[in-house]
């Protein structure tokens, strides 16, 4: 354990902490605004009625100052009857809250004290998103607002990895509250990738931050947070990183492996679907949040142009259905000039055998990656669900994705929702792609593991596409085991039968993912926080370019 080395800035703020990470320290009184309590009723399916005393124990989330949560209001008690698991989930959520100077600022990744904590005692940006949505749906807006402000100010500090300075707009992957013995006060330490596996900066954190800011604004009806100069500047810094000109010939975002939820080497370098879908959604959210001032208008113009190009590229070149699969199967190679049919020079012999059996007659999906001479045909759940929610997928494509999930239920859902990707890498391919990663063995963790947190994304996609019965079926599967198994991080096996070999118990986003799915299914109006309607102006004629027409 290395000793703390603290360097102070002229204004008294702490900026660096040796090699351990980046520190943020600032007074809250000038930044945090009082929020208006708006308790919201939730109607949850009833199987076993808890007693009034149990309800109070489960849902009385008290702040350090004794303010009662929206769940404790009379309106809440008279209008909702809880599945027993819901009460347990909220109790665990309450325990997961992290406080910074008596203010709630997030939730820890996991509360499993039976194993070494590693970085599971930190607040992760991506992990907090389902927690934030659950709190918003429950009328607990303070923690979400505090989280947005704290991560925003963490963004502003200088970020160094070895001798290299990261871009100013990079958001942290996570942060942790520690006690500074020198100044006898709490401070925040942020990780921008310098402590992560592989030392990769989190590309998705900035996108999730913008998406969550829009969810908060939409839910509360309060635009004052988003209109703060600090929030406007934070968004512009994130967008500057994404919209900068380089050597790109595609509108998609070039990324390193391990820069998102799949944060280990899994062959998702290049143009992964998860990042492209989040990029698209963040751009659309930014359009709604940026002010129409001089700086804002400049970014709005750039965003609109990028969205048009990105939507066309993704809807055409990343989309795979039976017809397109057959077209690729018949490609010629080594073509030249703008008349080439096989634009990316993809070798038909590189088509994996499994994809021919996996593709149903009705259905389709956005494949994992498209780059020169490479198409990753794996299914990735998060990217496809976000594509539906952001309306990157056209209504026809969204419906086809749901058709695929129904047709391949055993493969993608199995005994525990939901496969993070399909299929798993095995044998020689696993050795080459993952570098013999012992955590990502076949059908485990990121390599075909089943992640309960994805339940909320599936549920939101189901509601948007008018298929709530799919979500109900998946939630029922989760309710059979999640609580009994103590809310694991992930499950292993081809059907998700076994608790993951290194899965943490009481994983917060497994808990919050279930709560969000449950509340959203019971009150579909919550979908508006995380869903964007199709922009008709951004819908060009779905005519594939000549270079992709056989």
From TrEMBL:
One of its GO terms (biological process) is sucrose catabolic process. Its EC number is 3.2.1.26. It is an enzyme of class 3 (hydrolase). Keywords: Carbohydrate metabolism, Glycosidase, Hydrolase. It comes from the Eukaryota. GO terms for molecular function: endo-alpha-N-acetylgalactosaminidase activity; sucrose alpha-glucosidase activity. The keyword Acyltransferase does not apply. It catalyses: Hydrolysis of terminal non-reducing beta-D-fructofuranoside residues in beta-D-fructofuranosides. Belongs to the glycosyl hydrolase 100 family. PANTHER family: CYTOSOLIC INVERTASE 1 (PTHR31916:SF59), PTHR31916. Invertase that cleaves sucrose into glucose and fructose. This is Alkaline/neutral invertase.
